[in-house]
Amino acid sequence: MKKKFCIVTPTQKEKLSEYEKISLKTIQKNFKDVDKFLVTFLENKLELNNFKKVFFKKKHFDGIYSYNKLCMNADFYNKFNDYEYILICQLDVIVLSKDFLKEIFKKKISYIGAPAGKKNLFDRKRKKLWGRRFYCNGGFSLRNVEDFLRVLNSEKIQNPLNLITFIGCLKIGLLKYYKLLYYSSKQDKKSKIGYFLKNFNLNEDTFWSYFAIAFDNKFNLPSLEEANNFSFDGDPYFFYKKNLNKLPMALHGHHNYLNFLEKIGKKI
Length: 268
Description:
This protein is an alpha/beta fold. It has 12 helices and 9 strands. The chain has a single domain, classed as Alpha-Beta Complex (Spore Coat Polysaccharide Biosynthesis Protein SpsA, Chain A).
C-alpha cells in the first residue's frame, strides 16, 4: 500500500543561506514524521538531517530551464511511486502548518500551488489578476504522482481546446501554443506529449496549470480560493486579506515574509 505523501526538496546548492536554514527548520518542524527527500546530483555533498538523497544527472541542475524539464519528465515522478503525492518544498518556503492537506486529499486535487500571475506595468501587485485564471506556482506544490504520470504517458490530446488551456494560450501566446497543440495532436500516439514538451519553453508550473488537462481531462485543478488557502506567493498583506485574514499552509518566494509574520504576531 502506498504512503500518502512525502516531502521533495530540490536544490543545486552545496551551502545554505540563513534564510534557507529558516525554511528548512519550518519544513522539519511541520513534517517531522514524514519521509523527506533531497533531490540533487551525485557530486553535491550537501547533507540535510532526516532527508534521504535522490540523484539525477547534474545537467538537470544547470539552471531554471533544465530544472523545468526535469519536472516534466516521467523519470522524476517514477522515483516517488511509493507515495500517492509529493509535496515539493523548495528552500525559499516558510511552512506554517499541514492542516489543509486533509481537505486537498479529500477533493483528490491533482496539482495545487500558490496562485500566481504575470505582472504587468499596470498591476505591480497582481490585484487585477485576482478574478482571472491563475497558474499555481511550483515552488511549494502538492502533486498527485499517479495523475502526473498519466499525463506524461498520455497518448491523446483534447481537441478542441478546453477552457483552461484556451485561457492559458490567451495569456502566453494564443497562436504559438495553439499551433503547438495542433501539431502535437498530429504525432503518433506515443509521441504527442513528447513532441509538445520538447517544444514547450515555459516554466513547468505553467504546463501543469494550463496544459496538463489537454492530455488528461481528469486532471483536477484547484479553485483560486483553495490555492490561496494553500500558499501565498507575493505581497502577503494582499493575499492575507483575500484569505479572510487567515494564514495559508506556507509562504513561498523571497518576499519579506518574516516581517509580515512578526507584524501579525505569528511565530515560526
